[in-house]
Amino acid sequence: MPENLSERKEVWKTIFLFLALVFALTSPFHYAIVKLYPSRIYVGAIMWCPAIAAFITLKIKGRKISSLNWNWGNWKYIRWSYFIPALYGLITYILIWSFGFGSLANEEVILDWGKELGLFGIGTLNPTAITIIAIILIGTVEVIRASATTLGEEIGWRGFFIYELRKVLSFTGVSIFSGFIWAAWHWPLLVYYNNNVLLEFITFFIVIISMSFIMTYYTFKSKSLWPAVIFHAVSNVYIQKLLPPLTMKTVGTEHWLGENGIMFAIVTFVFAIYFWRKAIKDKL
Predict the structure, then answer these.
(1) N or C terminus: fewer CB in 10 A for the chain?
(2) What's the CA gap between 279 and 127, in Å, rounded?
(3) Are 50 and 156 in contact (CB under 8 A)?
(4) Is residue 9 part of a domain?
(5) From CA 267, how far away is CA 208, in angstroms rounded?
(6) What is the domain count for the chain?
(7) Is residue 115 part of a domain?
(8) Which helix (H) or strand (E) covers residue 273, if one does?
(9) pLDDT score for 87
(10) Which residues of 190-221 are buried (b: 16+ CB within 10 A; e: fewer)?
(11) Number of Cβ within a 10 Å radius of residue 277
(12) CA atoms of 187 and 205, how far apart (whole Å)
């Protein structure tokens, strides 16, 4: 960390320049999603705003884009960055199914998957086989597709932002500050597309800050932005596209389900505590 006060001020100026650019670039697309239509095009554009903000900030500061940690790094961290979000997603929904907040499986979704993939009428494929094939494809091909948009976020948040914060804050400070900003960045979507705004604000902030601890750990440990890209994509796919559709909702328990659900907040918080302790032990 810079010991000179003027150097620290310069770091904070860079941080707030980046955040101002993120806000300016994102605002038109947030407006479009809220006032026009929640198109995937607008969502994709939003997710690339942090990267563009980082590139502009680097240009203004006379630094090269190549200074970001583009190297792939150790495959170990890539594997863990797939496994961990898949694991906390599975744990979340196993608990949901076990406590009766939802039930497995949604036959209509399995039918839709079979139709979408053209699997009906192939030999003797039954719903179980169709489900397995669909899960494998969603867990691989869909993750690769999702990585194209999470890359935009992670170039900005984990590739640039947390490294600037690291110059003036501890690992804990970096994780909390970056997680809070990352969560707040989603606020228009939370306000306009949720039923219980206060509850889902709380659970969403817990989830995002918890994820920030884990992703910051793997980013600093690997010295690469790619584990965060994979982690983010896998988390989005498992907790948005794979596990919720398989779950039949139970009346009165909807606040326990989904990425803003109480159960997901509890599980990710426990994971965050583990990685926070791990980071302290590894002196990150």
Answers:
(1) N
(2) 43
(3) yes
(4) no
(5) 12
(6) 1
(7) yes
(8) helix 262-281
(9) 96
(10) beeebeeeeebbebbbbbbbbbbbbbbbbbbb
(11) 11
(12) 10
